[in-house]
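Data card: per-record layout.
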Amino acid sequence: MQEKKYILVKAKPLISIITLNWNQTEITCQFLESARKLAYPHYEVLVCDMGSAADPTLRIIKGNYPNTRIIKTDTGNDNGVNWAVKQAKGDFILLVNNHTVLTENTLDDLIAPFLTDSLLGVACPKICSFHKKNEIQYAGYNALNRLTGRKTIIGHKKEDRGQYDTPVYTHGAYSGAMLIRKNVIEQPGMLPRNFFIYFDDYDISARILKKGYRILYQPKALVYNKAPLRPSEKSAINVYYNTRNRIQFMRRNSNLLQFAVFIFFFLLLTVPAATIRFLFKRQFTHLQSFFKGIWWNVKMRTAT
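The structure for this 304-residue chain is written out next.
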């Protein structure tokens, strides 16, 4: 395959690190401080500012962070990453949240498997909590349950005792810390629109796997995360996005029979259970958000 050129030509390919900033200049600068310590010699950092109220440019310039460019968009939509990828010069893209902390060998350990595996499309690090260093947040994804449309993270909130220290191919990449070949992200399509939170990483993972590429969980690479890996589903807005995107993902990535079975399960069990739960807790706004998430999909003629 064409990807083998990376093995033959570039042992140290340029890696473009992309992180988004929106009114979090101090957090972004803390991320850049961790990037400053990277041992890998051939990288650039793109800070994509999404129209912050206060321009972060001067603060970042004063930090004198190496190999760093600031790019700006005021589109305010959920395609900031896709726009930033087009500005990247690297053969590989590290998509990473600004509230993470990279360790010294993150890039070396993530890039290494690509040099011997021409079918590898994505490599993801082990992610641990910044506040509880021995608590795992991500060690890969289990296969999606096609009946319920639910996904589970391997190792989530478990103590790190070395039980997830073996590299394995996994069913899903975490979009908040993933190294991907640039041509791979361009072939199946970039990060999906209309997801915002929930299921965006599983959607792009499904398309990457469908193209015949592999997704590797690489535990030698370690990243610390300052925020919960998954937003709390207790708020009404997160109930809306979780419901909406769960259905949308199944529409985009299931055949007709699979989607019919999912809808049968959803209407027969999920809707009554969620209705009873929200009514019992007197969470009427949550219940309204739940049905708004369903109605969004009803209005959409085709998945986007």
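Known properties of this structure: The two ends are 30 Å apart (CA to CA). DSSP finds ten helices and ten strands in the chain.

See the next section for split statistics.
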